[in-house]
Amino acid sequence: MNFIKRLPDWFKGSMEFCNKMIVSLKKKLKDGYDTWQKINNTNSEKGNKNVEKILDFLSMPLRSISIQTRLFISFTSIALILLLITGYLSYSKSSEAMKSKISTYSIQITNQLGGILEREMDKYGKFLNDFSSERSYFQDVLVKMREPGMDLYSRRKLINDVEAIWPDDRDFG
Length: 173
Hints:
The chain is an all-alpha fold. It contains five helices and no strands. It has helices at 2-41, 48-63, 67-133, 135-145, 152-165. Helix 1 (2-41) runs antiparallel to helix 2 (48-63). Keywords: Membrane, Transmembrane, Transmembrane helix. This is Methyl-accepting chemotaxis protein. The chain crosses the membrane at residues 71-91.
């Protein structure tokens, strides 16, 4: 809880430190640019001295910054680079994993639905084959059941005979 109360002050102090650092870097870069112009204006010196001056010019802004500031900038930039790389890698890997899982899941569902539909079609195909092969028997049963002189006992016996030919495991309802 104490940390949360001190967080705005810490953030404000960090922003002031960064602002001071940017202002000092700006001044040092301007000084370095002026030095660079002086180096370019003196064409009399040649060879290694020019290279040394160029290297001195490039390192001048860094040498004029305190070690504490250089370390802070270095560690912050390394941490930021690592954070960005880790974030990008984790995002891309998780996106790939999600895409592959979704496609695998879709393929599995399609295969399962295909199997279920195939079994249902086989069931109805067998029913139609059985019905067409037993057609004359069923027609005879239907004709007998519609006869006006048929009593309840005889009808029940015909139904039981049909059920014996057609077991209950062929329920299509």
